[in-house]
Amino acid sequence: MRKQWMGIVVVAGVVAGQAQVRAHDAKNLPPGPIHDRHELMEGIGKNAKAIGNALKSGDLKAVPEAASAIKKDAAKILPLFPPGSTHAESRAKPEIWTDWKTFEAGAKDLEKTSGDLAATAKSGGDVSAAADKMFDNCKGCHEKFRVPEKK
């Protein structure tokens, strides 16, 4: 169980940390879907960090609201990736468009798993297990569809 929590905290930290590192790059993105999806993903990252911090501290009050916000934002992902919406400053891989069905399923799964997490947190269920599912979804999509951060 402790190992799972550490994994959750690490994933949340990576998501949030990358959002902070990339924040300055948003000004280099063209207006429209590329910029808008960057901003949307940063918001998701901030909420993921809030969930990770809540799990780490054991104070789960922030989880329902943060997970609900991720669910709401996840529903906005797909329209922000129209074909041809690439840019040198974007970390979106071409696989998004060549494997659209998998990408689409990942976005829809994020909507579901974040909604499940919000409901679980509200009902007093196993928040850790529900968070694991959501963070696994995030990690899988990032690994397949996002260029790693340059160090």
What is the topological layout?
Elements: H1 2-22, H2 33-57, H3 63-74, H4 95-98, H5 100-123, H6 127-145
Helix pairs in contact: 1-2, 1-6, 2-3, 3-5, 5-6
H/E series, N to C? HHHHHH
Tell me about the biggest sheet? Answer: none
What is the level 1 CATH name? Mainly Alpha
Give the CATH topology.
Answer: Four Helix Bundle (Hemerythrin (Met), subunit A)
Computed over alpha carbons, the radius of gyration is 15 Å
Number of strands: 0
What is the strand content? under 5%
Average pLDDT over all residues: 88
Low-confidence stretches: 18-24
Judging by the overall fold, what is the CATH architecture?
A: Up-down Bundle
Distance between the termini: 31 Å
Counting structural domains, the number is: 1
Instruction: Please tally the helical runs, counting DSSP H or I stretches of 4 or more residues.
Output: 6
**CATH homology superfamily:** Cytochrome c/b562
Q: Looking at the chains present, what oligomeric state does this protein adopt?
A: single chain
Overall geometry: elongated
Q: How much helix is in the residues?
A: 55-70%
- Give the class from helix and strand content and strand pairing: mainly alpha
